Each structure stands twice: as C-alpha cells, then as structure tokens.
Amino acid sequence: MTPDLESLRLLVLVGELGSLGRAADQLGIAQPSASKRLSTLERRLGVVLVDRGRRGSVLTPAGVVVTERARRVLDEVAGLVEGARALRSAQEAELRVAASMTVAEHLAPSWIGELRRARPDLRVGLRVTNSETVGTLVRDAAVDLGFVEAPGALPGLSSRKVAVDRLALVVAPGHPWSRRRRPLTPPELARTPLVMRERGSGTRDTLDRALPDACPPALELGSTTAVRGAVVAGVAPAVLSVLAVAVDLAEGRLVEVPVELDLRRVLRAVWPGGRRLVGPAAELLAVAGRRSSTTAAVQP
C-alpha cells in the first residue's frame, strides 16, 4: 500500500532529530500516535525503518535508504503545492472580461475602475464585441465573465441582471420625423429602412423581436459608433441605446422620435452555467450590481 505523506514526514523527522518523541512534538501529535503511525508504515513497506532504544530512535540501514527517497518525494510534493499556489495567484491577479458594445463603451469602464481602485494589482482585459460572440467566449472559457444586451435565452450560461437600458428612435435634426409630436406606430417604423447593427448584436436582436416584419435595413454597420455617425450624417433613422446618444441628444445633433414601442431591455452578466463565480469575476459582478441601481441614464 502507498504510504501517506504524514508518515513519510514523521520518518524524515525521526532521522533528523534522532527521537520519535521530538518528531511527534514537531508534527503536533502524541507520541503513541506517532509510534503507531511509524509501525503502520513499516508494515506497509515490509521493512524495519527505526531501531527504538533507550537512547532514542535510530534509522536502520533500510530506514536511511527509505528516508532519502521520502525526502525527495516530500520535496516534489512541496514543489507541486507551490506551483499550484503560483498558478492560483496568477489567476487571481488577472480578470478576462468580454462585453457587448453598449456595456463596454458606457458602463464597464466605471465598473472596472472601481474594482481596480480596490485591487490596484489586478490586470483586466476587456474584449469588446457583440452579444452573440460574448456568449461564445464565455462558453469556451476564453473569458471569465461576460456582459450582454441580448434579450433571448442564453443556453449553457448562468446570468444576472446588472442594468436596464432603453433604446430610442433617433434622427438627424433635418429629418421630417424630428418635428413629429405624435408617437410613431410600429407598422410605420417597420416600413422604414433604418441604419442597423449587424445580426448577433443585442441592439439588433431587441429590434428584430419588437419588429419581426421590418423591412431590410438601409445600412448595416458593425458598431454603435458607426450607426450613430450615419444617423448624424442624415443617412436614415436608427434605434440606439440612450447611453450611446445621450450627448448627441443634449447637444442637438440628434432628435429622439416618440414611438409606440416599449424598447427597454435588460443588460446581463453571464458566466458558464452551473459554476459559482469566485475571485475577481465575482467582485466585478458585485460592483456592477451596486452601480446599476444608480445609473440613471439607463432608466426609461
């Protein structure tokens, strides 16, 4: 039978100290227990390891050989434990995050900033992409935590609400809708070609669910910034997060058009299903949860 590590430590100490009692004291066990453990080790290995006498405990020739090998085993185990501790420390000092563009551009920087003020040695990597890709990265363990704005189911993922966002229909100041006071109806909006994000983005998914019969887009772009720029240039209207257009609305570069649609959506943190978040990922989620209650800009 394979000897246990504590028995090997006891044997090594007996060889170093020349006393079973002193070895037992150093390990924090009673001498009778140490004697029993040493006898069990000898039976398992089939050799006598220690001569016990009035003047102390002395290793037998077989005991010397076994003790040297035991010392090497214990050194290897100590190296294994230290290596694992280093790996754990490296993991605890690094956080990999992926976020959809709205979250990455308008919410995640303040969350990460608060976390790093509490943990200045933490290295955080943020990947910015659409919600569909965020989900894939989390499932593939390429990141520790993700943030999405997609409204649908998230198979294979656990999730938690971190904020509520609202989408707004916006146009350039010269557009005929800019002076409209009566809310636009869903059929009217569905008949209008819009500047849209690509499929797989949370903004596009939310709009597709709200307007399943919408006509093809006037222009399809891969970032919120590009969509916003196209609307400011007068290409066509767009539906965008109020987080992304708040400054433009305040400064008159864009005008919000009332619409008879509830375009609120939940922004969620996601991580692999069935797992419990620990370490920096759990801490960032806690920060996001605290901040969400004070993010007035996302309220309808």
UniProtKB/TrEMBL annotation:
Residues 3-60 form the HTH lysR-type domain. It comes from the Bacteria. Gene3D superfamilies: Periplasmic binding protein-like II (3.40.190.10), Winged helix-like DNA-binding domain superfamily/Winged helix DNA-binding domain (1.10.10.10). Pfam families: HTH_1, LysR_substrate. Keywords: DNA-binding, Transcription, Transcription regulation. Signal peptide: none annotated. One of its GO terms (molecular function) is transcription cis-regulatory region binding. PANTHER family: HTH-TYPE TRANSCRIPTIONAL REGULATOR (PTHR30126), HTH-TYPE TRANSCRIPTIONAL REGULATOR CYSL (PTHR30126:SF39). Belongs to the LysR transcriptional regulatory family. This is DNA-binding transcriptional LysR family regulator. It comes from Saccharothrix carnea.
